[in-house]
Recover the amino acids of this structure.
């Protein structure tokens, strides 16, 4: 078995976590890009969403995560019972997660579905791989919002497509690897082709943002629909 060695050291993140809503049961936040969701094993990767929030909400625990480079909405439980109830909603796929992204190139179709199983690939860590044999089922919907030209370095303008992405499943790196399979990687994605085109090498961040989160509040049983405008 291939041993996984994680050499990633996160650069300092000076952006603050925005607390959008809080009550005695849960907290809704806007995570900045460039911040880990959970602290890593390496002491240099101590800073994270959880590390910061536990100082304010001592018993809080993460229900789900966003990739290091992804910004946007996260729901955080303030006790174990709420965590269990929210985790059940995630596992039953009743939580709706909607993202916005800028993809490299102008998509041919206005909408579609990407169906491709995703597997861990220890030999290429931290990359995941597409594998119908060993992978777990993964399905994502995309819808074009607009096709435009994005200025990059040296006066170059890159054709990009702003899309709304809705994952049915919640696999690691799902949207990033699915967009690569589609042939239009997310701009700024270092793992799945988003920095390969001329002028994209210095893209400052992964242009993926968790813009909507819909779930049922475990205590009140009311439907919660949160929105966060894309910062790009």
């Amino acid at each position: 078995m291939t041993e996984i060695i994680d050499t990633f050291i996160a650069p300092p993140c000076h952006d603050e976590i925005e607390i959008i809503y809080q009550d005695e049961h849960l907290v809704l936040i806007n995570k900045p890009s460039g911040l880990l969701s959970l602290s890593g094993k390496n002491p240099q990767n101590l800073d994270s969403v959880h590390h910061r929030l536990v100082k304010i909400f001592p018993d809080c625990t993460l229900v789900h995560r966003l990739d290091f480079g992804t910004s946007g909405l996260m729901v955080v439980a303030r006790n174990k019972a709420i965590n269990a109830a929210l985790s059940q909603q995630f596992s039953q796929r009743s939580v709706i997660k909607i993202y916005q992204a800028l993809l490299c190139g102008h998509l041919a179709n206005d909408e579609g579905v990407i169906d491709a199983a995703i597997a861990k690939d220890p030999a290429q860590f931290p990359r995941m791989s597409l594998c119908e044999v060993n992978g777990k089922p993964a399905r994502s919907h995309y819808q074009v919002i607009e096709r435009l030209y994005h200025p990059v370095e040296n006066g170059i303008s890159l054709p990009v497509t702003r899309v709304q992405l809705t994952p049915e499943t919640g696999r690691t790196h799902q949207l990033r690897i699915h967009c690569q399979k589609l042939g239009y990687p997310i701009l700024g994605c270092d793992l799945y082709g988003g920095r390969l085109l001329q002028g994209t090498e210095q893209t400052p961040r992964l242009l993926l943002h968790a813009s909507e989160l819909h779930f049922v509040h475990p205590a009140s049983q009311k439907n919660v629909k949160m929105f966060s405008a894309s910062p790009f």
Q: What stands out?
A: The first helix runs from residue 49 to 53.
